[in-house]
Amino acid sequence: MKKRVAIFISGGGSNMVRLLEDMALPGHAAEPVLVLANSADAAGLAKAEAMGVKAVSVDHRPFKGDRPAFEAALQAELDQVQPDILCLAGFMRVLTEGFVAPWEGRMLNIHPSLLPKYKGLHTHARALEAGDKEHGCTVHLVTPALDDGPILGQARIAVEPGDTPDSLASRVLVQEHKLYPAVLRQFAVGNTTPVTL
Length: 197
Prior knowledge:
Blueprint: E1 3-9, H1 14-23, E2 30-37, H2 43-50, E3 55-57, H3 67-81, E4 85-88, H4 97-100, E5 107-111, H5 123-129, E6 134-141, E7 151-158, H6 165-187, E8 195-196
Parallel strand pairs: 1-2, 1-4, 2-3, 4-5, 7-8
Antiparallel strand pairs: 5-6, 6-7
Helix pairs in contact: 1-6, 5-6
């Protein structure tokens, strides 16, 4: 029985596309059942539909800061498809402990830094400001603390002379597109040995 996967996005969904492409390959232990965005104009929704995956939006703006109500609406969508695994792929909303706790151990996130360094935003600029020699991305299990769960995989790149936040971001994204599918492929069969790229 394949594991059922839901993916949360906020924008173009490039990591989502890579996850969907990988799950479509023969022998994969997971299958996508839903792509959900927090805005109806997220470009990734149309991409998911074009790839044959149910795509819905739950706009966070009408909830006006009432995060529990927003998260109840998210959970209502999940209840319709009963996923086993939830993948955050560029989902730009912080989820509360009330939402995360029931999913703990089954929710993955990809973050553009070598955690535990640079939790939160502006990771590429912060790596440059710190003079880091290497940078990268991390897939981790989601816990109520921001960007803080057990690490399931990391990919590293060298920081080059003259790098900017944008140039770092573009090179890290290439690694994200390799790392996230590799981690999900393992995770779907119960293997939590960290992936290193």
